[in-house]
Structure prediction request, 260 residues.
Amino acid sequence: MSRNKFYRLIVMLCLCSIFLGDRFGQYAQAKSSDFVIVKGVLTQYKGKSKKVTIPKSVKSIGDRAFYNCEYITSVVIPKTVKSVGDGAFSGCKNLAKISIPKTLKSFGAHPFFDTKWSNNRMENDMFLIVNGVLLGADSKKQTEELIIPKGVKIVNQASFNYWTGIESVTIPEGVEKIGNIAFMMCENLRSVSISNTVTSIEDGAFSDCYNLKSITLTKDTTFIGEGAFRACTSLTIYCPKNSYAQKYAKTNDIPYEIIK
Prediction:
């Protein structure tokens, strides 16, 4: 073999090695070195694998830890993970399969936004619900009357913020908490009916709903967060006498009417 042919062969083998390494790397399982973990919090994924199994040493997945990892197609979350941060998997457009333990019930805002997995589920059922937590819904399907589905225990933070098409919301029995800014800037929202199972309305839940005229609360609501009704200038709270809601209305100079 001539020297020139030998050199060309070496170059071809090197190029093939690089190409195949990249190709197989995308299909291989993620390695432990692909994860940045700080005190149990997975803060960043640096790998290129399509299939990802999160290490059992992880207790929490941080905000935007997998942001825009478009090559990922499947993720397995272990039982050790107790919370998932804001936008943790947002922008993972090809993420079609996610294994989520039943014990995981704490989520930040829009943790699976714009993934194939969430888009497919909302296309079939409008709402994205995981372990009793309503994480969001397909805004293209919004109607004037929004009724939260049965089986939901938590309306997650930012679930319906900026939904301008809804005029009334019904929170049925079984729901226990309405998360931060869940309905913020729903500018055409006029009335809200909340069941007696709701105990907590978190910060900014209905802030800037400036056409909101009435909300009915029960004696069982025992926490209303900061700015929950900020800039709701047309609002009247309907609530039982001596209830937490009445005290909240008085303290925050919100008109109220007593109901039985």
Summary: Residues 3-27 form the longest helix (25 residues).
